[in-house]
Structures are given as structure tokens and as C-alpha cells.
Write a structure and sequence with these properties.
This protein is 54% helix and 17% strand. The chain is an alpha+beta fold. It has a five-stranded antiparallel sheet. Strands 11-10-14-13-12 form a five-stranded antiparallel sheet, sandwiched between helices. The radius of gyration is 54 Å and the shape is flat.
């Protein structure tokens, strides 16, 4: 079928479809939509009515619960006292609660008392009789049963609750019933809210003409006072569970003629749109998509230059004939370019195998051809060879341009036939890469001058980065990032090879590194070394050469500068050390320098002199630096654990008194006083959250806490002034029976001073408050020392200490 016939058929079928759909829409709009709309209106009215009555019921139940769970009501059921009636059951109470009647019953359902107001006597009598006669059928509050009761076509809400005390401590002794009328005020509110009038009627189950399910409400349309209205009926259970109440509502009918007209207009519009959409879908599928497929195919072939492709279009029309013609044309082109493609593929495979690009440069015209892959890699621009040549030149890094230009000119002038150069390129993205270009003159003119140069291009960035990384690692210190000893030895070799060189060598040694390693661990020591290197970098100029010579030794080489610069540099290093506030103690670097001269003509001699001066400086500063460090560590411990300073002072006083009682020499008393101050120095290495924990330590936390003796031992050992009490610090938590830590020494294997400190320390801990305990009495502490005598403590020293406490009346 031809395209014109297909289009005509689509239009005819569309109009037939439009006619059938229009008929169906109007049929369903009148008999379906309007009928459903009527039912929705009735259902919405009944839902609103149910909601209003439910709210009224909840309000009544809330009031009832306040009275039923009241101790006075409970007492009234029991003794029927007049005071309760006089105080609570007057008419104003019923008016306030909006009640028509209150009824009090005992557990057997007998009437105890009732109160009513504002209700017709005949209705009151019938209402009371109904409730009293069938009160057992009235479900207690909380059930889902209807609370409605109809008497002489007047509707009442009746709710019932058990009576008990306010705290539910007593058994139920009766029931309380509230009765509220659905009066004209509420009916008016219903009419205003639900937009419908409500009437209650008594019915019997036998009268099933109105006995309908909610979803099949009995309703009819009536014409009153010039308006159409719906009248609908619904049966409800009464408070006794009987289907005896009929709701009758009447609501104004919507003007369906307007709806009908609106639906008619909307239907016509929808039909027109539907026909348009259907026509578009059919024509698009049969014509446009096929035409688009053919167009896309031709564009794809033009882009990929793949003439071996073919296209298949369904149908027997003009578009199918056009597709066949296109396939025949591509077949001819494919045959014509086959040899060219094979040759080009061979060359491309060779270049891909080497991961290289190629460049063909025509000297006289200043034009260049670059392989497509390499062109895309670098981001060259230019519509012709001349613009491409300019783009190529512009992307050579400025620092490499002159060198590359000089090499090219030599080739162009005929001085050289080939070249190999490595240089940097700036890609279009801004990334800098390294390129290796190897070229050769491929064609010359009659005078032997080059007219064509062919070269290959290779990306060697990874190789260059690897070489730079190897060079950096071999010449850099891993911890500090500054140069290492190997690099500095190469510098020394260059300086020794240049007899005219002028230089100073500064040697530095970091003070206190071993003490920090022993106190805080090697990670903190590494951090101190790094900080020292940072200080040196900040103090030196960029032309100064800084290196880490050994563990805590640094070398600075200052070239072509005078002695005043070196002196100022050393002062700046000391100032930077003072400025550094990351540690609790002052960082100190011992420094010595020497200058190349006729007496010291090479780096070895200059280094030797600088080292001697450095050690001389270290001897002068070492003692004060170490003592300053220890003082700083003690200050840090006291700041970290506020109890420690007071604790150590008390232990020192008591220990010296006990030592004198035991007859210790003056030297031993001096050691004992120093031990009292430093026995807990190792706690500086314990995390603060463990040290100051207010509750008991876990096993893992206690294992960490026990390491403070070993940390303290290392600190003391690293300081000659305190090395003689290192063992006592290590063993001051050993127990007399061998169950202590760190190694379980027993009896007199434990140093005497450690045994003394253990007793005094334990006594002070018991008798003073800590974050995790309250202070105990001295009497309790003495009994505890006696109890642990021979197990934890030396029994002889314990007895001497107890006598000391009693004689001096220590509290």
C-alpha cells in the first residue's frame, strides 16, 4: 500500500472510532456518572452525620467517666446519703452537663436514684421504663454498640458505666447512666454542617421495606418548592442492640443539566484529542518512524564511514524503495574503498600496538597532520593543517619550547636528518604530560632541503613520574620529608669537587628524644622529630639545604652566605623552638657550626668541627633541658590528675617519718623522698578516660593502668639523676606474697623502699576521697592494713607504720 493510501485509511478509521467512542461516553456519562454522583452525595451526608453523632457520644462518655470514677459517687451507691444529692444532683448540674436524665443503679440493676429535667412526663416515664427494664442490654462504656434510643420519635444518647473509686481500688458497686437528647440545636448544627435535614423514626425489623444495607440505601428524588431533592433512609441499632431506629435525611439535588452539558463539552474535546493522538501514533509508526530510521542510518554511515552497513525497512511503498537504493549505493562505496580501508587498518594496528601517535609536518606550507587518536588525546584544534600546526606549537610547555625549537631548526636547515626529544605538553584540560618525539626527514627538494618530516609521539608521563618518585624516595627522609643522608653526601661530593665553593655546615642534635620515647612511646618520639624538622624548615631560607643525618641529628648546609647569616639562623631556630607550644616542655636542639677555610678545606673536616661544637653546646644545655623536661612531665601529670600532686606530697611526708622510724640512712631517706614524688610518674602515659574514670575499671582498662609502673621505670632510667630509683618505681605495686605486678616478686625480693611506698600509698588512697570512691576512716584503713599484712604488705613494716599512726594520732 502506498503512503497516500495509508494516510487516507487512517483518517477514515479515526472518524469511525470517534463516533463509536462518543456514543459510549455520553451513554455512560448520563447513566453512570450522574447516578454515582447521587450516591456519593448521600454517602457523604451519612458519613458527616455519623461523625457528628460520634463526637457527641464521646463528649457524653467523657462526662460520664468523671462521675462514675468518683469516690463520692461510689459512696452514694452504698449509703444513698442526702448530702451527695444536695451537693451534686440539683437541676443546674443536669443543665451544665446537657443531660435530660441521670440514673443510679446498684449491682443487681435496682434503681438507687434518678434525676431528670426539661423532659415531657410521658416521654420521661416511657424512657425510664425502657432503660430500667432492659438496662442489662445496655453495654458498658467502651463497647462499639450504638448509644441511640428513640422514644416517641425523639432521639436520645444513652451511655452506661460501672461505678468504682477513682484509683480502681474497689470492686464495682453499681452503674451510672447518662441520657442526653438530640435536640433542635444539634439538629440545626447537623443541617448546617452536613447540608441536609435529619429525622428519626421508629421502625420494626418486620418492616423491611426500609431495611437496607448502607451501600444500597433506599432513596428517591422529590420536587419541592421549585427544587429537586434526595430523600434517603438508613436503619441503625438502638442502645439495646435492636434495629429499631431509622435515619431519614433530605438533601438538595445538584443541577445535573449543568453537569451534563459540561461532560458533553469535555467529551467532544477528549474525542478530538484522542483522534489526533491515534492518527499521530499510526502515521508516526507507518511513515515518520520509518523515515527517521532511514535518516538516522544515513547520518550514522556518514559519521562512522562504515559503508558495509545495510538497512531494512518493512512495507512495499516508496520508503522501502528508497532504502533499497541506499543499500545498493553503500555496496558500491564499500567495494571502492576496500583497499584503502585495509591499508589504513594495517597502519592503525601498528600505531595502537605501540600506543603511539604520528605527526607529518610539511615544512614549506607549515602544515601538519596528526593521527586522530593522538589528536583526541591532546585536544588539538584546527580545521586545517595550518591551524593544527599553530595549536601543536601552542601546547608545548614554555620551559621546553626553546630547546625543542632549536632542535627543529637544525633539522629544517638540513644540519640533522633525525632527532629524539623529550618534553612536556599541556593538554586541553590543563593536564601536563611528558612526550617523547622521534622524527626523521622523509622527503627533500632538489637542493637537499627537507620538505617533509615524519615523527612518532609517545606518552611517557608514567615513566617520568616513576623516575621522579624513585629519585625523591632515594633522596628524602620518609618521616620528615626533608633530604636524607644519601642526598647530603652527594651535596658534600659536589662541594668537595668545587674548590671555589664557600659554605657553612650546621649540625644539630635534638635533646630529650630518648626521654620522650620512653615516656610516651616511639610514635610521640617520631612526632617530636617531625616537629624539629618543621622548625628547621621554617627558620631556614629556601636556598639552605636541610637533611636528617641520623636518628636525632640534622645537618644544614648554607652556601655563599656570611657568618652573620649563620649566627642569625641559629638564633631563629632557637626562637622557633620556644614558639612551638604543641608540647608541655620546651623543644631544645643543640647546635654547632663550622665554615670551610684553609684549615678546614673539605666537608669532612668542616663536619668534624661542627660536630665538636654541637656536643659542647649539648653538654651545656643537656642537664637543664632534661630537668626541665622532667619538671614539665610532673606538671603535666598534676594537670592531668589533680589528686596526684596532693597525694604525692602526703606520701612523701608519711614515708619520711616511717623511714626514720625504720632507721634508714640519710641517703636512703633522700631516695625515699624522691621515690614518693616520682612513684606514679608513669601515669602520664595512661589515657585520661581510664585515669579519671569514676567507676570500676574493666579488665582491659586495668591492664592498661598497670603499665604505669613500666612507663615510670623507663622515664627514670632515661634520666641519670633518677636512674637509682628506677627499680623501686617499677616494683612499688609488687605484693609480699608474690601476687603483685609487673613480675610477681615475693617477700624481701621486693626493694625495701618499694615495700614502704606500697604501704603508705595504700593507706593514703583508703583515707582520702577519689573520683571513684569516698574516703574511709583511719580505723578502717588500719584494720585493712592488718588484714593484708603478710599477703600484700611486709608485716614488720605494717606494724611499725600502725604504731607511727597511733603515736602521732594521724587522722
Amino acid at each position: 500500500m502506498k503512503v497516500k493510501q495509508k494516510t487516507f485509511s487512517v483518517v477514515i478509521l479515526s472518524f469511525i472510532f470517534m463516533f463509536l467512542v462518543t456514543y459510549a461516553v455520553f451513554y455512560m456519562s448520563y447513566y453512570g456518572f450522574i447516578e454515582k454522583h447521587k450516591k456519593d452525595e448521600v454517602e457523604e451526608s451519612f458519613q458527616t452525620l455519623d461523625y457528628i453523632l460520634s463526637n457527641e457520644e464521646e463528649s457524653l462518655k467523657s462526662s460520664l467517666l468523671d462521675w462514675a470514677f468518683w469516690d463520692d459517687t461510689y459512696g452514694f451507691i452504698n449509703d444513698k446519703n442526702d448530702e451527695y444529692i444536695k451537693s451534686n444532683l440539683d437541676f443546674s448540674t443536669l443543665v451544665t452537663l446537657n443531660l435530660k436524665m441521670m440514673i443510679f443503679l446498684d449491682n443487681k440493676g435496682n434503681l438507687v436514684y434518678s434525676k431528670e429535667t426539661g423532659i415531657d412526663k410521658a416521654i420521661s416515664k416511657e424512657l425510664s421504663n425502657e432503660i430500667l427494664l432492659k438496662n442489662k442490654q445496655i453495654k458498658d462504656i467502651g463497647s462499639n454498640k450504638s448509644p441511640l434510643l428513640l422514644v416517641n420519635n425523639k432521639a436520645f444518647l444513652v451511655v452506661k458505666s460501672k461505678v468504682t473509686k477513682s484509683d480502681n481500688s474497689a470492686d464495682t458497686n453499681g452503674y451510672l447512666i447518662f441520657v442526653r437528647e438530640i435536640d433542635n440545636k444539634l439538629l440545626t448544627y447537623i443541617q448546617k454542617t452536613a447540608k441536609t435535614s435529619l429525622v428519626f423514626n421508629n421502625v420494626s425489623v418486620a418492616n423491611d421495606i426500609y431495611y437496607k444495607d448502607f451501600k444500597s440505601l433506599n432513596n428517591e428524588v422529590k420536587y419541592k418548592k421549585g427544587k429537586w431533592s434526595f430523600e434517603a433512609y438508613k436503619i441503625e441499632n438502638d442502645v439495646f442492640g435492636e434495629k429499631s431506629i431509622m435515619f431519614s435525611i433530605e438533601t438538595e439535588q445538584t443541577n445535573y443539566q449543568e453537569y451534563y452539558f459540561s461532560i458533553f463539552v469535555i467529551g467532544i474535546i477528549l474525542q478530538i484529542l484522542l483522534v489526533f493522538v491515534i492518527d499521530y501514533i499510526v502515521i508516526d509508526k507507518q511513515i515518520f518512524k520509518r523515515l527517521s530510521k532511514l535518516t538516522d542510518f544515513i547520518e550514522y554511515v556518514a559519521k562512522t564511514k562504515d559503508t558495509s552497513l545495510k538497512i531494512q525497512l518493512s512495507g512495499e511503498d516508496e520508503l522501502n524503495q528508497l532504502a533499497d537504493s541506499t543499500n545498493r549505493m553503500l555496496m558500491e562505496l564499500n567495494s571502492a574503498y576496500k583497499d584503502i580501508k585495509e591499508s589504513d587498518d594495517r597502519f592503525r594496528i601498528i600505531m595502537e600496538a605501540t600506543n603511539d601517535g604520528y605527526l607529518d609536518f610539511y615544512v614549506k606550507s607549515r602544515e601538519v597532520y596528526i593521527s586522530p587518536e593522538w589528536k583526541a588525546e591532546i585536544g588539538y584544534e584546527g580545521d586545517n593543517g595550518s591551524e593544527l600546526f599553530k595549536s601543536y606549537i601552542s601546547k608545548i610547555h614554555p620551559e621546553c619550547f626553546d630547546r625543542l625549537k632549536e632542535k627543529f631548526y637544525k633539522v629544517i636547515k638540513g644540519e640533522e636528518d633525525s632527532f629524539t626529544e623529550e618534553f612536556r605538553f599541556i593538554k586541553e584540560s590543563g593536564e601536563i604530560i611528558w612526550v617523547s618525539q622521534r622524527g626523521k626527514v622523509s622527503e627533500k627538494d632538489s637542493n637537499g632541503k627537507p620538505i617533509r618530516i615524519v615523527s612518532t609521539l609517545s606518552n611517557i608521563t608514567d615513566r617520568k613520574k616513576y623516575e621522579e618518585q624513585i629519585l625523591y624516595l632515594s633522596y628524602s627522609d620518609k618521616l620528615t620529608g626533608i633530604k636524607n643522608r644519601t642526598y647530603m653526601e652527594n651535596v658534600f661530593s659536589e662541594l668537595n669537587g668545587n674548590k671555589e665553593s664557600k659554605y657553612f655546615i650546621i649540625m644539630g642534635d635534638l635533646n630529650g628524644l630518648k626521654l620522650v620515647n620512653d615516656s610516651f612511646g616511639h610514635s610521640e618520639g617520631d612526632k617530636l622529630i617531625y616537629t624539629a624538622s618543621k622548625i628547621l624548615k621554617e627558620a631556614c631560607s629556601t636556598s639552605d639545604i636541610i637533611s636528617r643525618w641520623g636518628g636525632d641529628e640534622f645537618i644544614i648546609v648554607v652556601v655563599n652566605k656570611d657568618r652573620s647569616y649563620v649566627s642569625k639562623l641559629i638564633d631563629n631556630i632557637k626562637i622557633e623552638c620556644i614558639k612551638e607550644k604543641e608540647y608541655k616542655f620546651n623543644i631544645s636542639i643543640a647546635l654547632g657550626y663550622a665554615e670551610k677555610s684553609t684549615e678546614y678545606p673539605n666537608t669532612e673536616a668542616v663536619m668534624c668541627l661542627a660536630e665538636k661544637r654541637m656536643y659542647r653546646n649539648k653538654l651545656m644545655e643537656d642537664k637543664s633541658s632534661r630537668n626541665s623536661t622532667i619538671s614539665s612531665l610532673l606538671r603535666t601529670l598534676h594537670e592531668k590528675h589533680s589528686e596526684t600532686e596532693q597525694h604525692t606530697m602526703r606520701i612523701k611526708i608519711l614515708s619520711l617519718k616511717l623511714g626514720k622510724r625504720l632507721g634508714l640512712s640519710e641517703d636512703k631517706l633522700d631516695e625515699l623522698g624522691l621515690l614518693a614524688l616520682l612513684h606514679d610518674i608513669g601515669k602520664i602515659g595512661i589515657p585520661e578516660q581510664i585515669l579519671m574514670k569514676p567507676s570500676s575499671l574493666t579488665k582491659e582498662e586495668f591492664d592498661v593502668m598497670k603499665t604505669h609502673t613500666e612507663i615510670g621505670y623507663r622515664i627514670a632510667k632515661s634520666t641519670p639523676v633518677f636512674a637509682h630509683i628506677a627499680d623501686e618505681i617499677l616494683y612499688h605495686h609488687e605484693k609480699y606474697d608474690g601476687t603483685g605486678y609487673p613480675i610477681g616478686l615475693k617477700g624481701e625480693e621486693i626493694p625495701l623502699l618499694a615495700r614502704i611506698i606500697n604501704i603508705v600509698d595504700s593507706f593514703d588512697v583508703m583515707t582520702h576521697q577519689r573520683v571513684y570512691k569516698e574516703a574511709l576512716s583511719v580505723e578502717f584503713a588500719i584494720e585493712e592494713l592488718r588484714r593484708c599484712s603478710g599477703t600484700q604488705f611486709d608485716p614488720y613494716i605494717v606494724q611499725e607504720f600502725i604504731d607511727l599512726i597511733n603515736e602521732n594520732k594521724i587522722h
